[in-house]
Amino acid sequence: MSTVAERIAHSELTPAERRVAEVVLDAPEAVAFGTVARVADRAATSGPSVVRAAVALGFDGFAELQAAVQEELAGRLRPAAERIRRRPAPDPLARALEVELENVHATLVAVDPASFSRAVTWLAEAPRVAVVSGDATFGVAHSLVSTLSLLRDGVDLAVGSPVQVMQRLALLDAGDALVAIDLRRYERWVLDAVANVCGRAATVAITDSVLSPLAQDADAAFVVDAQGAGPFDSHVGTLALANALVSAVSGRLRRTAARRLDRIENAWAEADTLMRP
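-> structure tokens emitted (277 positions)
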């Protein structure tokens, strides 16, 4: 059976239908979990054009196209124990380049600007920001906390036993923020942590599907592309999104963050803590 991308490559499409096809390729999550109206808006065309594009690709209508895209997205999330049995790519470096570029591109183009703006406001202005993460994405969470902490006070990576984590999160108040990062298969304690905070502090979810339990009740949710060149999920797209959030926060806090970074740099220099090139 042909993939959706293969159908697009071998179909004769009108300009409007081609724009719809580009949305399918560039932002499959928007098609898999969106509506005809949302896809039409992204493609700068009409609802009927979206339906005609689906038919031109060989589907009975938008619902069947949507189901096919959902199935292909689910296939990307197969566990490592299954993926490792695939035949390895003949050129691992070329394969890694192709996959990681797509991960970054698909992750960032799928970001909803309004959700991004809200998340940046919370990360910049909330009195306290807590970050929780599953083990696989811990490196991204640590990087997010480290860089945000250079820009502002009150950023905390909630780690330790479930008792310690819940103790920290219990102290979050209205106006504070929680960032939760995890990919399928989700760690239960991360889900419990988010459930504990929902409705009390602003929650930002970074995960791999809008159907993720992390995304369901979050105030802002971001879907990352995590396809791996090998058997394991990639976190390159996740890190790119975290970097984009920090970059936007630095712009929001430019004056105060600049003074803060000057003090930190001076302290490092006075203590001679870093080797000079």
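The radius of gyration is 21 Å.
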